[in-house]
Amino acid sequence: MRGKGELKFITGLLFEISGGATTTGAVTSNGPKPSSFSFTFKTKKRRGDLAMMFENNAVSHVMARPPFSDSAKIIPVTAAHVKDVLDPLSAIFFSARSNSRNVDGSVCPGRIRVFDGRQRFDLQLSHKKTIQVKKRGKGGYRGMAIVCRIKYLPIAGYKPDNSGIKFMAETDDIEVWLIKVPRKGMYVPYYVKVPTPYGGAASATSTEFHVEIPGENKIAVIR
After folding, report:
1. Domain count, the chain
2. Torsions phi, psi of 167, nearest 5?
3. Which of 86, 107, 135, 201 could pair with 91 in a Cys bridge, judged by C-beta atoms 3.0 to 4.6 Å apart?
C-alpha cells in the first residue's frame, strides 16, 4: 500500500510538510502481517526518510536519515516494545474487520500496538457513532460509516515533557470513519481527523480506493 499527502498550517507563519509512506506484507485471517515500511518527508528546511523491516512478528531493522538524536530524557524502546507491532499504515488500514452483516460499533478494532520507527504507542479505538455519508459531487462515497474515536497512548521512544505528545495523549477528538469493502469482512478508512496544538484540525479524505484479490474482480470501494 502507498500513500502520499501534504499538510499546511498558518499560525502567524506558514508551515508546510509533504511526504509519503509505503507498507508491504500480507493480510491474513489473523490480521495484517507487515514485512516492510518506509516513510519520507520534506519541509522548506528539512527532509528525511525512514525504512523499517519486520521478521518473525517483530521489527528487525530501522534506518533513519538524518539519524535520530539521542537523549537521556527519551524513554528507551526495548526489544519487547517492538514485538507483535504494526507500522502506522497497516494499523489504520488493515485492522478493522468483522464477519457480521450488520454495520455496528464492533468494527472498531480495540487496542492496536504500533511502532513508527522511533515511537512505540498504542491506539485505543472505540465506537463513537454511525453516520450516513452523502456523496459529494459526481464522485465520492455514499453509504454508512462507522466513526471510531481514537485515543493515543504513548509507550516509549518519546520525551515525557514533550508538549506535542502531551497534547495528543490528552485529546479525545481524534477520529476515523470506517467504510466496508463490498462482499468482504474488511473495513477501510474514509476520513481521518486529528486536532493540532495550533488550533483547528488536520484531516484526510479517501478519494479513490481499489481492492484487488487474486482470482476475483477488482472491487472499487471509492471512486
Report:
1. 1
2. -60, -50
3. 86
Alpha carbon 61 to chain centroid distance? Answer: 20
Distance CA 75, CA 155 (A): 8
Q: What pTM, to 2 d.p., does this model score?
A: 0.84
Write out the residue range of the structural domain in which residue 14 sits.
2-222
Please give the Cα distance from 79 to 10 (Å, whole number): 39
- How many angstroms separate the first and last alpha carbons of the chain? 17
Q: What is the pLDDT of residues 127-151, one digit of tens each?
A: 999 999 887 666 677 888 999 999 9
Place of cell 521478521: 55
In DSSP notation, 174-202 reads EEEEEEEPTTSSBEEEEEEEEE-TTSSEE
Taking only the tens place, the pLDDT of each residue in 165-190 is 999 999 999 999 998 877 667 788 88
